[in-house]
Specification:
The protein is an alpha+beta fold. It is built from 9 helices and 12 strands.
Length: about 325
């Protein structure tokens, strides 16, 4: 290289080593260092080409404090997906917080629903229909679904009981009538109501002679007096002195069902009879005073049952209500 060009190159190298730079990358630093070693081997610029003296603008020597450029270089050396990972972590954090918030809101709403439901259930259990005699507890009235009837005259009928005696409702005037509709071949609710009748009669005491227990047949396929007598004996209803299980011609039965709003479904002689189950309490003047709705539970196999405590409550409620009507007749 001509001497003039050598001096120009040396001057340029000196300026590069000490003047301001634009932040040369690691690859550029390696290339300039390699170029400096070639110059040194050629004996060019021996005064500035020494080990550790030639450096690239923006690079720092050992022991030089890290400045703003060093921090920027460190940031540039981070993995290119670091920012993406931080952003993903933030998104996951916000999603998690949102899910927790939604879960807490849901738990709070469910707890409120349960508490309100329990409050309403308790309030409903304490509601008492108006017109119920004071000797009937609210729980018993609710169990029986007891409701007063506003002075409706009980529809009359003329039918024959299990002893073959033909009677009318009017012939029972002067006594309280507890009236139900039953199927003599029933294995579901009718036997349970029959037990409640028997137990209620036993609790009447001195008023027992003033109360009549009556049932009207709802099975048109089994409507003989013998059918009524067999059922009465099987269910021990004959232990009630004033018990009458009435039957009669199917047209007369249907008229009575209609008059008392009893729905009957009897598709065939061997099918179960589906019918309305309701107890009418008729006072000594022949006026409907109260209605009750018997109920049963069923086992997994379909057998009807009612817990003994509820049967007892039913019997007690029937007896107390009949007793109250009998006393008020005087």
């Amino acid at each position: 290289m001509p001497v003039g060009q050598q001096h120009a190159a040396c001057a340029d190298m000196a300026g590069s080593s000490s003047g301001p730079g634009a932040g040369v990358s690691g690859g550029a630093t390696w290339m300039v260092s390699r170029y400096a070693r070639q110059i040194e081997q050629a004996g060019i610029c021996p005064d500035i080409v020494q080990e550790g003296r030639v450096r690239i603008a923006g690079a720092r020597q050992h022991g030089e404090p890290a400045g703003t450029d060093a921090a920027a270089g460190a940031a540039e050396q981070q993995p290119p997906d670091a920012a993406a990972r931080r952003s993903a972590r933030r998104r996951r954090m916000w999603i998690t917080l949102s899910l927790v918030a939604v879960l807490l809101i849901g738990v709070n709403a469910y707890a409120t629903y349960v508490l309100v439901g329990q409050h309403n259930a308790n309030a409903g259990a304490n509601l008492r229909p108006s017109g119920i005699p004071g000797n009937i507890s609210t729980s018993t009235a609710n169990l029986m679904q007891l409701s007063p009837v506003p002075g409706v005259r009980a529809p009359g009928f003329r039918l024959t009981d299990q002893r073959g005696h033909t009677m009318t409702l009017a012939s029972l005037r002067g006594k309280v009538v507890v009236l139900e509709f039953m199927d003599p071949h029933c294995t579901d609710i009718c036997p349970i109501v029959s037990q409640e009748f028997v137990d209620a009669y036993a609790r009447l005491g001195a008023q027992a002679s003033k109360v009549v227990f009556v049932a009207i047949n709802v099975n048109q396929y089994h409507a003989t007096v013998r059918d009524m007598a067999a059922y009465s004996a099987a269910q021990r209803l004959n232990t009630i002195p004033d018990w009458h299980f009435f039957t009669g011609p199917v047209p007369a039965l249907r008229t009575t069902w209609r008059d008392y709003n009893i729905q009957v479904q009897a598709p065939s002689p061997n099918a179960d009879i589906i019918h309305t189950s309701v107890v009418y309490f008729i006072d000594a003047n022949g006026t409907e005073r109260f209605l009750a709705s018997p109920m049963v539970d069923h086992t997994a196999g379909g057998t009807a049952y009612l817990p003994l405590a509820q049967i007892s409550d039913w019997a007690g409620g029937i007896a107390r209500l009949a007793d109250d009507l009998a006393r008020s007749a005087h």
